[in-house]
From TrEMBL:
Alphabetized UniProt keyword annotations: Disulfide bond, Glycoprotein, Golgi apparatus, Hydrolase, Membrane, Multifunctional enzyme, Signal-anchor, Transferase, Transmembrane, Transmembrane helix
Name of protein: [heparan sulfate]-glucosamine N-sulfotransferase
EC annotation from Swiss-Prot or TrEMBL: 2.8.2.8
Pathway stated in the Swiss-Prot or TrEMBL entry: Glycan metabolism; heparin biosynthesis; Glycan metabolism; heparan sulfate biosynthesis
Sulfotransferase domain boundaries: 565-642, 731-814
Binding residues for 3'-phosphoadenylyl sulfate: Y778, K794, G795, R796, Q797, Y798
Length: 844
């Protein structure tokens, strides 16, 4: 059916005039509190029922989405340390189940109340909706009654509530209000001026059932679902919710509650930057493209939106090859777009809409981009936006380096966007990064794709689309992201014009229900603002493309994760890492990276400037000349077989760099880690202190592992502190090698190491390593009378440390050494003799 003959959805939503006008005259509440003596970290203390409770996870997810720091504690356990000197550690206290606070033992409850009063912060709590023991109960002397197991409908806000900041009392949310479980709520009945309603509703009658709880009510009496305690009775401000976060309005009120109770220390911005890309301009089959009437509708809607969103213009991404590929009416639409080209922002898509990762060389990519640029010049399309988007996000992430090369050469691109970094889902974790001078912004989806052009073919129909707009996913995307770059397609603006309906509707709904101010900026200015707001996202974190099916599909066919190392040697300097590297490379099945002209056998990728050269640069160190990792014939113990090498990389500089843990784990999450270590007090002067710092890092991460394992509910995992591994590791991933044993009995160490790496068959090192009396350590056997040893600076003997210094250092590291012993036992690994001796000396 022709889309013009259909009944298109119209964005006809309007806020009630009275409420809308009331709020135009009323400023949002300033929650800030000025006091020079108050020093508090902007952090939430969150008490959950248990580590798996759904509402607890929902609260934590909402905090993460809005970039708020928080600490999770399980209710009923000991309280965390609340202060650090004269500084408070938390700006708001949140209870997933407020009754856990009410039932706290007297000592702990008084501690929390004392902290709240002293630091002038508040408590936010959620009431369970099915706790029969609280039906008609008093929560605070005789000042507040509650009733549970209530179904409610038609929510509306108290416009004079001091809690409202982001949220405004714009309308009524019609219908049954959702809650978990079974849409049941707790409602509040106050009996003191300290309480003020925040959100109200009316009773929902189901099959004419009567409201039987005390106190009695009638169907038209307001029921309070969210209430504010101004602290007039006991000096503590509170906000209480009668249900969790399933109802979208509660999410907004939660953010306002946290802002109100923290005195503005935990507040989100009221500014929202919105950029709407329309990709695939001129691309599409006949019958799906824009006609002149569609272009006129885009222009009309854009003008209306400019009155709501200052600076608003649609951002059109064009592929010139498909200009005039439609029927006569659609070709007229193409012409009309160009006639009004000055009314829009423009960016280059791809000349022929081919995904860049399918190009094998930069020359052809440059040729095709140049065609698109020539087309733009010929038809009066601006060419200086500095922004581009790749079809299906191909080449942006995972990075295809030639795309960045061609972008710079042809278009001088400064900004792009993708929804793929670090992964498509969950959207709340999307981040930005900068690579080779190109700023990559996170992109958001709106529920519209190239195939969603008719409302009756939209998955779930119009009701599903409206659900996303009226408080659902699209609405919340704008609320929870200060900067939004939305992806749409040309086909969404023809036929039923779902793109126009969607965005005009959601923008009006946002303005009805919030105090947010929306504006549009050109992409380069938008990117500069983003990184000013989030400077911690400047550096990329390269993930493993093979761990995500979507990433694998947009990764070049000639790239393979087989060209990434299976294990890393990260021991600190002067612990035998070079000797271990030499012994490993003697193994016929094990292969190291190719040498670097700058850093020799160490690539030093994860800890320095080489990381910014990208994944392609790193992988080349593990590939053959033809760009693959080929199987090879190997002979072990007189047995020939065809095997792919086990790749590894060694760098002593990885051990004491704070950036390495997160980077290495993101790219190589299953890689095994080898860490040589030996007794510290063996080196005089600075050399010794260098090793000591390394040892300190080893044992520090063992202590952190115990705390982190509890917090993430992974009791069998080991989590490293910064400077060591920094991520959760399974026991089978980590092997700590006794550096003294490596020097004195390398054959035993290499046997154990092969078992750890699960190499079969085992390589016999006993005939390949021999002790060299002149050197004082083991060397590689070349012939019956000849050894190949490490250089002169290896294996040197140092004068003994004076007893006073040795004793001091042994005492200093007793705690760390004890933690290291506990970790080794947990991993079922041997305790080195030097470690046993150190502990024995320090305890004697």
């Amino acid at each position: 059916m022709n889309g013009l003959m259909r009944s298109r959805p119209e964005a006809s939503y309007r806020c009630p005039t009275l409420l809308s006008e009331h709020h135009r005259q009323r400023k949002w509440v300033d929650h800030s509190y000025s006091s020079s003596r108050l020093r508090i970290d902007p952090k939430v203390l969150l008490f959950v029922e248990n580590t798996f409770s759904k509402l607890g996870r929902d609260i934590a997810e909402l905090l993460v989405h809005n970039r708020m720091k928080y600490k999770v504690e399980v209710s009923g356990r000991s309280l965390p340390i609340m202060t650090n000197g004269d500084k408070g550690r938390f700006s708001t206290i949140v209870f997933e189940n407020y009754t856990k606070y009410l039932h706290m033992d007297k000592w702990n409850k008084e501690l929390i109340d004392k902290y709240a009063r002293e630091y002038n912060i508040g408590i936010l709590g959620f009431m369970p909706s099915r706790d029969e023991t609280f039906v008609g109960a008093q929560l605070k002397n005789a000042s507040l009654y509650i009733d549970t197991n209530v179904k409610v409908k038609d929510a509306y806000l108290n416009p004079s509530s001091g809690v409202l900041r982001v949220t405004r009392a714009g309308d009524i949310v019609r219908g049954l209000l959702p809650s978990e479980p079974n849409d049941l709520w707790t409602v509040f009945s106050p009996n003191h001026t300290t309480f003020e309603p925040v959100c109200m509703a009316t009773h929902y009658h189901e099959q004419e059932a009567e409201y039987v709880h005390s106190p009695p009510s009638t169907s038209n009496m307001p029921l309070i679902t969210v209430i504010q305690d101004k602290g007039e009775e006991d000096g503590i401000r509170r906000v209480l919710f009668g249900a969790g976060l399933k109802f979208w309005l509660n999410k907004l009120l939660f953010l306002d509650g946290v802002s109100y109770l923290s005195r503005g220390r935990l507040s989100i911005s009221l500014k929202r930057y919105v950029l709407i890309d329309i990709d695939d301009i001129f691309v599409g089959e006949k019958g799906t493209r824009l006609k002149s009437t569609d272009v006129e509708a885009i222009l009309d809607t854009q003008e209306r939106l400019r009155n709501l969103v200052p600076g608003f213009r649609f951002n059109l991404g064009f592929s010139g090859k498909y200009f005039h590929y439609g029927d006569d009416e659609e070709n007229d639409g193409d012409d009309l777009l160009l006639e009004h080209s000055d009314k829009f922002m423009w960016f280059p898509h791809m000349w022929n809409h081919i995904q860049p990762h399918l190009y094998g060389n930069v020359s052809q990519l440059v040729i095709d981009m140049s065609k698109n640029k020539d087309f733009a010049k010929e038809h009066g399309i601006p060419i200086d936006s500095g922004y581009s988007v790749s079809p299906h996000h191909s080449g942006v992430y995972p990075v295809h380096e030639i795309l960045y090369d061609a972008w710079k050469k042809v278009w001088n691109i400064k900004v792009t966007s993708t929804e793929e970094y670090p992964h498509l889902r969950p959207a709340r974790l999307r981040r930005a990064f900068i690579h080779r001078g190109v700023m990559v912004l996170p992109r958001q989806t709106c529920g519209l794709f190239t195939h969603t052009i008719f409302i009756d073919r939209y998955p779930g129909g119009q009701s599903k689309l409206d659900e996303s707009i009226w408080g659902g996913e699209l609405f919340q995307t704008i609320i929870f992201n200060t900067i939004n770059v939305f992806m749409t397609h040309m086909s969404n603006y023809g036929n039923d014009r779902l793109g126009l309906y969607t965005f005009e509707s959601v923008i009006k709904y946002v303005q009805c229900w919030t105090n947010l101010q929306m504006v549009t900026l050109p992409p380069v200015l938008l990117a500069e603002k983003y990184f000013k707001m989030h400077p911690d996202e400047l550096d990329p974190i390269w993930g493993n493309p093979c761990d995500d099916p979507r990433h694998r599909k947009i990764w070049a066919n000639n790239k393979t994760c087989e060209s990434l190392p299976q294990f890393l040697v990260i021991g600190p300097q002067k612990t035998g890492t070079t000797a271990l590297y030499t012994f490993l490379t003697m193994h016929p099945t094990i292969s190291s990276n190719k040498p670097s002209p700058e850093t020799f056998e160490e690539v030093q990728f994860f800890n320095g400037k080489n990381y910014y050269r990208g994944l392609d640069w790193y992988m080349r160190f593990f590939m053959s000349e033809n760009g693959t990792v080929e199987q090879r014939n190997v002979t072990i113990n007189n047995q020939e077989s065809l095997k792919k090498p086990i790749l590894f990389e060694k760098s002593a500089t990885y051990f004491d760099n704070e950036l390495v843990p997160r980077r290495a784990h993101a790219l190589l999450p299953r890689a095994k880690i080898l860490v040589p270590a030996h007794a510290c007090p063996q080196r005089p002067g600075r050399r010794e202190l260098h090793v000591l710092r390394g040892a300190d890092r080893v044992v520090n991460f063992t202590q952190e592992s115990q705390r982190s394992a509890e917090s993430v509910s992974e009791p069998r995992s080991v989590r490293a502190a910064p400077g060591a591994l920094g991520v959760v590791l399974l026991p089978q991933q980590l092997l700590i090698i006794d550096g003294d044993e490596l020097r004195n009995d390398p054959v035993s160490i290499m046997y154990r190491l092969q078992q750890f790496l699960q190499i079969d068959p085992l390589f016999d090192y006993s005939s390949r390593l021999r002790y060299d009396k002149n050197k004082g350590f083991y060397c590689q056997v070349i012939s019956q009378n000849k050894n190949k040893c490490l250089g002169r600076n290896k294996g040197r003997q140092y004068p003994a440390m004076d007893s006073k210094s040795a004793k001091y250092l042994n005492v200093y590291y007793t705690t760390h050494n004890s933690a290291l012993v506990k970790m080794l036992k947990r991993l079922d690994q041997q305790i080195p003799m030097w470690l046993r001796e150190d502990l024995g000396q320090s305890s004697s």
